[in-house]
Structure formats: C-alpha cells, structure tokens
Design goal:
185 residues, mainly alpha
Length: 185
Amino acid sequence: MSKPIEPRGKILVWDPLVRVLHWGLAASIAAAWLTSGHPKGLHQLAGYVAGALIVVRVGWGLFGPGHARFLSFVRGPRATLGYLRDITRGAERRHIGHNPAGGAMVVALIATVAAQVTVGWLQTTDAFWGVEWIEVLHAALARQILVLVALHLGGVLIASLRHRENLPLAMITGRKREAAEDDVG
C-alpha cells in the first residue's frame, strides 16, 4: 500500500511559451487531421503552423530556461528503457519536469511532425506534386503521429495516476507539486 501524499506547495515547472507551444501543436495536429482531404488551404495552414511551432520549440529547447531545455529531460536509451522497466514494476520515480519516457516522446513527436510537415510541403512543389511515394509517406507519418499521440496520452494517464498528479492541468497552469525527497528535480 502506498503512503499518502503529503500536501505541499506548487511550483512553476513549465513556462508560458512551453505551454502555448504544446497546446498549439496539439491543436494544429488535430486541425490538420480533421481537414485532411478537405480544402487544401486549411490543411496546409495547419501544417505550416505546426512547422512554425516546431521551429520555435526546438529553439526554446536549446536556449530556453530550466525545464524547457532538452538537456533537462532528454535521456539516452538506457535511462529511458530503465524508466520504462521501472514503470512495469511500479517503481518509477516522480520527475518534476518530463520523465525519461516523456523526454523520448517529445523527441519522437517533434521529429515525426517535422518530417510530416516537410513531406507535406514537398507535395506542394513541382518536383514532388503527385508523386505516389511522397503521398504514401505523408499518410504513413500521419498514422505514426496518431500512434505517438495515443502513447503520449497513455503515458500521461499512467504518470498522473501513479504520482497522484493532474498532468494535463499542470500543462495548462505550468505548476506541479513541489519535489519530495525521492523525486527527480
């Protein structure tokens, strides 16, 4: 039986730009998905917005503050697989910022959305307009994004339940419960 969570204060973890970029990217991906096969202008606009958000997020991940920086949460395969193994045992530690699995998901989503935006843009060029393998790749990347989003939501749900913390609310307010002794800062 787990011990009760002691009430503690809230601390700011995710700055406003990280939160705007997160929800903006979620909205642009949803808009691109919903407008697929509809008027090209809306679909392309959603894709270009996603691309712009990715560019800003990468810049912020390299030069932004604290928990926004990739160096604060992107870990190698060994640490990420170890964290996933700890989840299966119910022994994962709470992280104030992104945990190693969340860091891997950030990288996977950024890379996949960036590839999707690039392939979508290529479809508008004279060289690649109507090229079948580009269309197939664009569709495959769209499905991959959906799988990653589903895994992301599953991970958020698991972490929220395990650590008794509303992570979607934390990504809205930017605030999480302050660190306990065994949490990772």
